[in-house]
Amino acid sequence: MAVKKKIPMRKCVGCGEMKPKKELMRILRMENGEFAVDADGKKNGRGAYICRSVECFRKAVKSRGLERSFKQEIPREVYDRLEKEMGEIGE
């Protein structure tokens, strides 16, 4: 009998859809308080998942989904830098 492998699911903070973890991108808050895009999902720190589309990122900014996930306010410069990083990785 074949064993079905469990696929980890995560919820996008932009659109709210549950998707397989590998289809989503992880936004990371490190111990020093800095934010970064964690493309491989292996770095240490608190993470929030988002679809690999700029539209979903903009929805997360508008609905403050990332701020709720990290339980803190995020400066505009950080959003701009994250959007630029997502654009580079998504291509």
Give an overview of the whole structure.
With 91 residues, the protein is of the alpha+beta class. The chain is 33% helix and 24% strand. The protein has 3 helices and 5 strands; from the N terminus they run E-E-E-E-E-H-H-H. The chain has helices spanning 54-62, 65-70, 76-90; strands at 9-11, 18-20, 24-29, 35-38, 46-51. The protein has a 3-stranded antiparallel sheet. A two-stranded antiparallel sheet has the order 1-2. The radius of gyration is 14 Å and the shape is globular. The mean pLDDT is 86.
Compose a concise summary of this entry:
With 91 residues, this protein is α+β, with helices and mostly antiparallel strands.
List keywords for this structure.
91 residues, alpha+beta, 3-stranded antiparallel sheet, two-stranded antiparallel sheet, 3 helices, globular, YlxR_dom, YlxR family protein, YlxR, YlxR-like_sf
What is the topology?
Blueprint: E1 9-11, E2 18-20, E3 24-29, E4 35-38, E5 46-51, H1 54-62, H2 65-70, H3 76-90
Antiparallel strand pairs: 1-2, 3-4, 3-5
Number of strands: 5
SS class = alpha+beta
Number of helices: 3
User: What's the main sheet like?
Assistant: 3 strands, antiparallel
Distance between the termini: 40 Å
- Shape estimate: globular
Order of strands across the biggest sheet?
Answer: 4-3-5
